[in-house]
Amino acid sequence: MPPLIFRKGLDLKHEVAEVLAESYRSDLIDAIKETDFQYSAGRLTVRLAREFGFCYGVDRAVDYAYQARRRFPDRIVYLTGEIIHNPHVNDELRALGIRFLSDKGESLEKLTHEDVVILPAFGVTIELLTDLEKRGCTLVDTTCGSVLNVWKNVKRYAEDGFTAVVHGKYHHEETKATVSQALLASGDRSGRYIVVLDRDQAAIVCDYIRSGGNRAEFMTRFEHATSKGFEPERDLKRIGCANQTTMLSSESLEIGDMFRSAIRDRYGEAALSSHFRAFDTICSATQDRQDAIITLLDEQSVDLMIVIGGLNSSNTGNLARICNDRVPTYHIANPDGLISAETIQHKAVGSPTEITSGDWLPDGNVTIGLTSGASTPDNLLGTAIQRLSLFANGS
After folding, report:
1. H or E stretch at 368
2. Dihedral angle sign, alpha carbons of residues 203, 206, 210, 215
3. Residue 220, exposed/middle/buried by CB under 10 A (0-12, 13-18, 19+)?
4. What b/e readout covers 110-140, taking b as 16+ CB neighbours within 10 angstroms?
5. Which of 31, 98, 358, 376 could anchor a disulfide with 309, C-beta 3.0 to 4.6 Å?
6. What is the per-residue pLDDT across 32-41, written as a single tens digit (0 to 9) for each?
């Protein structure tokens, strides 16, 4: 008998609505939205991006997790890993009694048909899903619709004999789940994939498409980012582009154009359609938040930007990258990063390292731009603004 899988909620949305609002909403942020996304107090002005925070997919995933806990009060409820890349939200779920298989002391091996397992917004690999189904676990699938759209296209590439070229981070949960879809192709050729992190890596692959190269060096470079048995001479002849949904959208589009040009140079314009495919797999929420911060910086003058979100959150990191090209930018995990008017703890943009900086808040009248990643709840922004006001005005 196949396991029970919930993919459209658990019919308890209204029952958990109040606790979700108490945990993640902010009256202050609601009020700021009503005053043209601006907050002023004393010498401080905060300009809030018009698109920020929880996207639909994240909101849905968190909602389903709370519903699952309510629906199965007497059963152990697990998450395969972080439901989203936000430590505050994940800690709230732990406080509800939801266990994380990624935490120390937990193990997939001990799961049985008595257990409930929540699949995160990033999705899970085919291998993990198959294992959970074999164990008979009750599953609550919160995989984001935008991720499912990428999967559909990557699977189609594989079925048609195209190698999936994925702009993403090969170690990211979403990308791992996505490339596993490429391996579903039937017939005498299993699906192939290669993951490129950025333009520089894309350029290496494009050069190989155009003129070949040193296979050993190429495979060493992409050792962890290619499918098993990957052969560049064979597997880069027909490619289809996709992306991790939280990447910088302008970069994804540029990388797609780079591969289109490389295939055209190698095989000619007439053969382009038989060697190259691309679908728009950029998440609309990711795009909206990136567009909103560009608009804010184009239309408003700010002294610095603060971006709030998990330090391992790809979409938050890309918001910080956009801002840092224009003004001094601080990516903080949560309001605790705002230590004092003199000291801030933040992730250096473009680096995995969290650092502590001083002299970050200017004297005199100061205007701060503020946004947050798609996995950051509004209450964290509200707390951050209150702390900024305290630092700027002393009360």
Report:
1. strand 366-372
2. positive
3. exposed
4. ebeeebbbbbbbbbbbbebbeebeebbbbbb
5. 376
6. 999 999 999 9
Rounded Cα distance, 383 and 333, in Å: 13
pLDDT computed for residue 352 by the predictor: 85
Structure tokens at 291: 């567009």
Average pLDDT over residues 305-309: 98
**Residue 280 has what pLDDT?**
74
Evaluated on CA atoms 383, 389, 394, 395, the torsion sign reads negative
Tokens of 104: 């120390």
Q: Please state, in angstroms and rounded to a whole number, the distance separating the CA atoms of residues 84 and 293.
A: 22
Q: Out of 9-13, 248-252, 380-384, pick the least confident.
A: 248-252
Q: Which distant-in-sequence residues (6+ apart) come within 8 Å of 256 by Cβ?
A: 167, 241, 278
Give CA–CA dist 61/206, Å, rounded: 37
Domains of the chain: residue spans and CATH: 24-55+285-393 (3.40.1010.20), 56-143 (3.40.50.11270), 146-282 (3.40.1010.20)
Judge if pTM exceeds 0.85: yes
Q: Is the pLDDT of residue 186 over 70?
A: no
3-state secondary structure 134-156: HHCCEEEECCCHHHHHHHHHHHH
What's the token pair of residue 359? 């002299």
Three-state DSSP class for residue 343 = strand
Residue bearing the bigger pLDDT, 103 or 352: 103
Cross-strand partners of 205? none
* 187 pLDDT tier (thresholds 50, 70, 90): low
Residue 282: pLDDT band (50, 70, 90) is: confident
In 2-95, the DSSP E strands lie at 5-6, 38-41, 44-48, 77-79
Q: Which residue has the tokens 């910080």?
A: 320
pLDDT computed for residue 229 by the predictor:
94
Q: Which residues are the active-site residues?
A: 174
